[in-house]
Amino acid sequence: VSAREDGTWLGDDSEPLEGFSWRGGSKRNTVGILLWSEPILTSLPSGEKVAVLLMDTQGTFDSKSTMRDCSTIFALSTLVSSVQIYNLPGGIIQEDHLQHLQVPKSSTLAKFLLTFTSELQLDSVLPLKEPCIDLQDAEDEKIYTHLGLFQIVPDQAKELSDLRRHILDSFETVSCFLMPDPGRNSKLDPVFIDNLKDLASSIFGAKNLKVKTINGQPMKARDLFTYFNTYMGIFNSNKIPSPTSIMK
């Protein structure tokens, strides 16, 4: 974010990557929700100063996470983010991927939102900002909008159209970005690097930065701790039921 003007944020090819710990393979590396310890201060085109916080979460809907774990991780990260990046391998959006995105409108989060807005006397925290669906290992090297699967058509089954309507009603916008395979060697593929730069610009560019709002008001840095405490208090109470399935 701070180096977007000179394009040096990727660093030298010979240097190891810095940032959140990660690794490939079947064993998960990240557990829970992590926030980068240093806020990145930058400016909007209006001159207004904003702080960008980077977040990483564990993968969801895996063999080690319960349904409640997945709902809690997804709900918390979505509620405090202005942009939620949802990584999908294989380069194709499938129907079950949309069901996962329905979590923000599931009974668990819907009841949570009602409880949260009531306790803090807010009008609403919906619609949430934006999920950016990152399709990994896509064969097409170009960026393109892959949102046809979100369309509601006349002959669609009610269950499928309701699913799409829930997603579109829950977020201000939904975007999609194709990312090619990063490469099999230690050196990143040049095509991947080019697309990565475009993706970063589409999210962190001064004109594209999205300020997090709650109840129509920009979130202040000092409010984040309060909201997190409130969120966790509600999640740890008996007011939120544990979901038994992704569609319930």
UniProtKB/TrEMBL annotation:
One Pfam family per UniProt: GBP
Annotated GO MF terms: GTP binding; GTPase activity
GB1/RHD3-type G domain boundaries: 1-102
Keyword GTP-binding: yes
Top-rank taxon, per record: Eukaryota
UniProt keyword list: GTP-binding, Nucleotide-binding
Entry annotated with the keyword GTP-binding: yes
Recorded family membership: Belongs to the TRAFAC class dynamin-like GTPase superfamily. GB1/RHD3 GTPase family.
Name of the protein in question: Atlastin
